[in-house]
Design goal:
Bound molecules: uridine-diphosphate-N-acetylglucosamine
Structural class: alpha/beta
Number of strands: 16
Low-confidence stretches: none
Mean pLDDT: 96
Strand order of the largest sheet: 3-2-1-4-5-6-7
Helix content: 40-55%
CATH architecture of the largest domain: 3-Layer(aba) Sandwich
Strand content: 15-25%
Radius of gyration: 21 Å
CATH class of the largest domain: Alpha Beta
Number of domains: 2
Distance between the termini: 12 Å
CATH topology of the largest domain: Rossmann fold
Largest sheet: 7 strands, parallel
C-alpha cells in the first residue's frame, strides 16, 4: 500500500455493503487514507452482492476471498484462514469491520491476533438472545475491538454495562442511513413498481401493498413455524397484496418443506394481483428502497430494515421476539410481533388502517456518520502513518 493511513475495510454479506460504502467514500474525500476493500465472498451471487457494488458506487473489492457458503464453523474458519495472509502482507493501521455477520467476527479475530487495531462499525447492539448467530458475532467482535463505533444510545449503554472502557466507545450514528439518505432520489426513479404492476394514476401513486422479507433461522428453519407464518401472511394478503423478495436460504427451505405452492411465484413480466402473497427474486438496493418506501407496511425479520423504515416513516412489523435496535421501537414505526399468527394479522390490519405518523430521526442518523468515523480514524492514526512515511 502507498502512504497515508492504511485501512482494510471488510465486507462479506448483503447488509454490509450499504454500511461500508459511505466509509469508503468519506476516506476518499478525506484524502489521507489508503483503503483496501476486502470482500470475504460470504455472499457471492449477482443478486446478493454484485448489484450492490454498482448501485452504491462502491469500488470493486481489491481482494475477494471467495469463501462462499458453508456451515457457520466452516465458513468462519475459511475466512480466518484466507484473511490472515492479507493482513500480514498489507500491514494495515486499522481493520474496519461492519455489522454482525460471520465475516465481521472472523476478520476482527484475525486482526486482533496479529496486533492490528480493530474498529467495529455498529458496535454495542444487543438482542440479549444468544440463540441468534448474529448476537454471538456482536459479543465476540466487541470483546476484541479497539474502536467501538455505535449507532444508537442503547449501544453506548450496553457497552458501558459490559465494562468496555469509555474511551473506546464513539457514538457516530448510522452509516446505513448515510447510504439511504444519499440514495433516496435515485431510488425514487426506480421502475420496480411499474414492473410489478403496482403503479396507479399513470405512475403518480402506488396501489396499496405490503413488502415482506424473511430469512432468520428461527423463522425459516422449522417447517411448522414457516407454514404458520405463511398462513397468517396469506390472510393479510387477502386485504392487500404482499410482495416478498425471497432470500436464497428461504427459497431453499420452502422447497425442502414442500411449501412452495403457498406463494404465487412471479416470472419476469408477471404483475402483482389485487390480493395474495407474491414471491419475487431478491431485489437490488434501489428497487428495494422504493418498494419499502411506497408501501403501506413492511413485515420483516431483518435488522437493517427496522432502521430503514424508521427513516422512511413506514410502519414495520418485526417477526422476532426481541430487537437489538430498540431506538426503532421508541420512535414508534417498529413493532415486535414475534411469531404469533393472530398478532401478525391483527397488527398488520391495524397498521394498514391507522399508519403511525413519521417520527423524527434518531440522534445522529443524519447522513454524517461515515465522515465522523473517518475523522476519528484520522485523529488516531495520522501521526503513526506520518512517522512511517
Ligand atoms: C447472513 C448473515 C445475516 C444477514 C444475512 C443477510 C451470518 C451469521 N448471517 O445470513 O446476519 O442478515 O446474511 O442476507 O453471517 N446464498 C446464496 N447466494 C449468496 C449467499 C447465500 O444462494 O450470494 C445461500 C446459500 O445457500 C447459503 C445461504 O444462502 O447457504 C445462507 O447464506 P449465509 O451467508 O450463510 O447466511 P445468511 O442466511 O444469508
Amino acid at each position: 500500500m502507498s502512504p497515508g493511513i492504511r485501512a482494510i475495510v471488510v465486507v462479506g454479506a448483503r447488509p454490509n455493503f450499504m454500511k461500508a460504502a459511505p466509509i469508503l467514500r468519506a476516506m476518499a474525500d478525506h484524502g489521507g487514507f489508503t483503503p483496501l476493500l476486502v470482500h470475504t465472498g460470504q455472499h457471492y451471487d449477482e443478486k446478493m452482492s454484485g448489484i450492490f457494488f454498482r448501485e452504491l458506487d462502491m469500488p470493486r473489492p481489491d481482494i475477494n476471498l471467495g469463501v462462499g457458503s458453508a456451515s457457520h464453523a466452516a465458513q468462519t474458519a475459511e475466512i480466518l484462514r484466507r484473511f490472515e495472509p492479507v493482513v500480514l502482507e498489507h500491514r494495515p493501521h486499522i481493520v474496519l469491520v461492519v455489522g454482525d455477520v460471520n465475516s465481521t467476527v472472523a476478520c476482527a479475530l484475525v486482526a486482533a491476533k496479529l496486533g492490528v487495531p480493530v474498529g467495529h462499525v455498529e458496535a454495542g447492539l444487543r438482542s440479549g438472545d444468544r440463540s441468534m448467530p448474529e448476537e454471538i458475532n456482536r459479543l465476540a467482535t466487541d470483546a476484541i475491538a479497539d474502536l467501538l463505533l455505535t449507532t444508537e444510545p442503547s449501544a453506548n449503554e450496553n457497552l458501558r454495562r459490559e465494562g468496555h472502557p469509555p474511551e473506546r466507545v464513539h457514538f457516530v450514528g448510522n452509516t446505513m442511513i448515510d447510504t439511504l439518505l444519499r440514495s433516496r432520489e435515485r431510488a425514487e426513479q426506480s421502475h420496480v413498481l411499474a414492473r410489478l404492476g403496482l403503479e396507479t394514476d399513470g405512475g403518480a401513486s402506488a396501489a396499496p401493498y405490503a413488502a415482506l422479507t424473511l430469512h432468520r433461522p428461527s423463522n425459516v428453519d422449522c417447517p411448522t413455524v414457516l407454514a404458520t407464518l405463511l398462513g397468517a401472511l396469506r390472510e393479510v394478503g387477502r386485504r392487500i397484496p404482499i410482495v416478498f423478495p425471497v432470500h436464497p436460504r428461504t427459497a431453499r427451505q420452502l422447497d425442502a418443506f414442500g411449501l412452495r405452492d403457498r406463494l404465487t411465484w412471479l416470472g419476469e413480466d408477471q404483475k402483482v394481483g389485487p390480493a395474495g402473497l407474491f414471491a419475487v427474486p431478491p431485489l437490488g438496493y434501489l428497487d428495494f428502497m422504493k418498494l419499502m418506501a411506497s408501501g403501506q407496511l413492511v413485515l420483516t425479520d431483518s435488522g437493517g430494515m427496522q432502521e430503514e423504515t424508521t427513516i422512511l416513516g413506514v410502519p414495520c412489523l418485526t417477526l422476532r421476539e426481541n430487537t437489538e435496535r430498540p431506538v426503532t421501537i421508541e420512535r414508534g414505526t417498529n413493532t415486535l410481533i414475534g411469531r404469533d399468527p393472530d398478532l401478525l394479522v391483527r397488527k398488520s390490519l391495524e397498521a394498514i388502517d391507522a399508519p403511525p405518523s413519521p417520527p423524527p430521526p434518531p440522534p445522529l442518523w443524519d447522513g454524517g456518520a461515515a465522515a465522523r468515523i473517518v475523522a476519528i480514524l484520522a485523529e488516531r492514526f495520522a501521526s503513526t502513518a506520518a512517522e512511517e512515511a
